Amino acid sequence: MDTFTIGGDLEVRRLGFGAMRITGDGIWGPPDDPEAARSLLRRVIELGVNLIDTADSYGPEVSENLIAEALYPYPDGLVIATKGGLRRTGPGQWPRDARPERLRGTCEGSLRRLKLERIDLYQLHSPDPKVPYEDSVGTLRELQDEGKIRHIGISNVSVEQLEQARGLVDVVTVQNRYNLTDRSSENVLDACEHAGIGFIPWFPLATGSLAKPGGPLDSVAKAHDATPGQVAIAWLLGRSKVMLPIPGTSSVEHLEENVDAEQLTLSRDERDAIAAATAG
Question: How far apart are CA 193 and CA 178, in angstroms?
Answer without folding.
Answer: 14
